[in-house]
Amino acid sequence: MSPFTWPVRVYYEDTDAGGVVFYANYLKFFERARTEMLRAMGYEQDQLITEQGIIFVVRSVQVDYLMPARFNELLQVTAKVSVTKKASLTFEQTISRSTHMGDAILTSGVIRIACLDATTMRPKAIPEILLEQLKHEH
């Protein structure tokens, strides 16, 4: 199955003094793609909090920065669920740009997400219907 893909434009505010995307902003781009993937599946994160009593939080991140992105470039950010567990998910993500020679991967990451009870902030099982849909994403 193909990973979910979301376009992200690099704004001036995303760049550092050297004119390239500041390293921490790649994490924001990854977050946007994961959020939009859930939205495309029919799940809004604010509704998950109010209706299911759950919140997704980043547990760990491993990122490889391969090439820089620059101001005004249009990037493609992917999100693919690689591991599903009762109360956690692991995503494999990339950020790339199209070139005349094909897509060039700029950044890749493995992001582990924990599902928590929105009130107690303790681990909580991902609702079964959502978990089943996420399992089909990998």
Helix proportion: 10-25%
Number of domains as seen in the coordinates: 1
Low-confidence spans: pLDDT under 50, at least 5 residues?
none
Strand adjacency order, main sheet: 1-3-4-5-2
Which structural class should the secondary elements be placed in?
alpha+beta
Which CATH first-tier class would you pick?
A: Alpha Beta
Q: What is the global morphology?
A: elongated
List keywords for this structure.
Thiol Ester Dehydrase, Chain A, alpha+beta, single chain, 138 residues
Task: Note down, in words, how this protein is organized.
The protein has 138 residues and is α+β, with helices and mostly antiparallel strands. It has one domain (4-135): Hotdog Thioesterase (Thiol Ester Dehydrase, Chain A, Roll), CATH 3.10.129.10. Helices cover 23% and strands 41% of the residues. The chain has helices at 25-40, 45-52, 128-135; strands at residues 4-9, 54-65, 74-84, 88-99, 102-117. Strand 4 and strand 5 form a beta hairpin. The termini are close together. The model has no long low-confidence stretch (mean pLDDT 94).
